Amino acid sequence: MPGITPSLWFDTQAQEAARYYVSVFPNSEIRRVSHYGEAGPRPAGTVLTVDFVLDGQEFIAINGGPEFTFDEAISFTISCADQDEIDRYWSTLSEGGEEGPCGWLKDRFGLSWQVVPAGYAELMCDPDPGRRDRAMRAVLGMKKLDVAAICAAADRT
Hints:
- There is one protein chain.
- The protein is of the alpha/beta class.
- The chain has two domains: about 5-65, Signal recognition particle alu RNA binding heterodimer, srp9/1 (2-Layer Sandwich), CATH 3.30.720; about 75-155, Roll (2,3-Dihydroxybiphenyl 1,2-Dioxygenase, domain 1), CATH 3.10.180.10.
- The chain is about 30% helix and about 25% strand.
- The strands form two sheets. Strands 1-4-3-2 form a four-stranded mixed sheet, covered by helices on one side. Strands 5-8-7-6 form a four-stranded mixed sheet, with helices on one face.
């Protein structure tokens, strides 16, 4: 199977964003930076792309210009081991960005993230519709997700 690598379009902040993301996630690195040449369309020497890895997932950031911006139609989900991890990613990624509902946020570059507990998808697909619905109602009332509150709501009878 061919590899699939998400490409993130920035105006001019590709390298700044890649450096930031690499600082946030463990086991991450910038692998390569390419630059525009004399053929343009941006000035020669300007960063064109940044190839980087976030905890094993490859990405490409491109300085393509102001024509396109991020929106919520694409987001990246971070499955967190516990509440401390949720709290850490939430506070780090939302700084300079925007908190949204139900565990969603936009970082300072406008990229959307879902910060959720491990096992979240299973809970939202629980075969017990009452448990699933109680959990969903709890989530709908939150910005940053509170694992204990979601579990308490799900298990309430």
